[in-house]
Every structure is written in C-alpha cells, then in structure tokens.
Amino acid sequence: MEDPIFFRRHSKRSFLDKPVPEDALLRILEAARWAPSANNNQPWRFIVVREPQRLQAFREALNRGNRWAWKAPVLIAVCARAEDDFVRKDDPVTYHLFACGLAVENLLLAAVEEGLMGHPMAGYSAPKVKEALGIPEAYSVVVVIALGYEGPIDLLDEETRAKDERPRTRKPFAETVSWDCWAFGEGAGGE
Questions:
Q1: Over 60: is that where the pLDDT of 3 sits?
Q2: Does domain 5-161 have CATH number 3.40.109.10?
Q3: Which long-range contacts (CB under 8 A, 24 or more apart) does 93-101 make?
Q4: In the chain, % of residues over pLDDT 90
Q5: Residue pLDDT, tens place only, 15-32
Q6: Would you kindly state where each structural domain of the chain is located, as residue ranges?
C-alpha cells in the first residue's frame, strides 16, 4: 500500500503565516460535513475564524502551551450540544461527541489532501473561546483546530521543537485490538 493519507496526517506545531485559499477551505469543510452521525443528526458546528480581530481574541483563549498555534492563519472551533444527541436507552453514549470526532477526522484528512496541516487541540479556555466567538451557552467547545501550511521546525522555540522531533508512536496492537471477546487486562478472555 502506497503511503496512505492517514499515515501522512500528523499534528506538528509549525505553521507558515500564509493564507489558506477559500476554495481549499470550502472543500475541507464539505468533507467534514459528510461525516457519518448517529440518526444522521449532524450535531457538529464549525466556527472558522480568519478575520484578524476575531482571530486575535480566539488566539488569546488558547493555553500558553499552544502559543505555537498563533501562527496558523485559520483557527476552527468545533462545537456541539447534548440536545442534538442520539440517545440509546440500554447504554447511554454521547454520540454527538463521537460524530464530531468523525467529522474532525474527515476535516484533518481533507486538509492533507489540500497540502495543509490541521492540529486539533484541547488546550484552551472554553469560556474564553465562547466569549470570543459568541457561542451560545448550550454548546460545548469540543475541540479547537489550527489549520494552515506546515512550516519548518526551526520556527519553533526549543521546547516546542523537542515535542515535534519526538517520533510518532502508538500503543502496541494487542493493547488496543482483541479478537472475538474482551482480552484486555482484567477480565481478559470474556470472564
């Protein structure tokens, strides 16, 4: 298999201060919109920020450790509300959050197709993001994504560069996949 897109996707931290073309952004968002969701609820809401004043207010809502994202020309807040969830009676699952994850992965892979990089983050103040972008109280900020063209690593400070220089890793296959029954740690073997 030739270098599949999901292996090319990565979340580095160096961005060029170069605008993202409108047509590329629209293709990326269209890919996100077509993600699957329980009962086709499509609970996601994407707030795409490029306007300088809003972008500055949004940037200020990011935690100090995510200052690298200030270089990204686009920040996206992905929001959802529990009211738009599909509810199972036998095992309550927050499907609206799962659906947002699927939409975000579509967005990230579409960004790779466009020659861009998206970096999802959890390091932000949700109240500050809501205030900066006028997000209603009923909605949660599920994730924030920095989007743009990847820049050279030497644009990063030493601490952030060290994070990006670490090799990408995953847990061993057997820690995340079992066949035919639960085989993880306690209770392994379907006991």
A1: yes
A2: yes
A3: 95/37, 95/38, 95/39, 95/41, 95/43, 96/37, 96/38, 96/41, 96/43, 97/142, 98/38, 99/35, 99/36, 99/37, 99/38, 99/41, 99/42, 99/43, 99/44, 100/43, 100/44, 100/142, 100/143
A4: 69
A5: 998 999 999 999 999 999
A6: 5-161
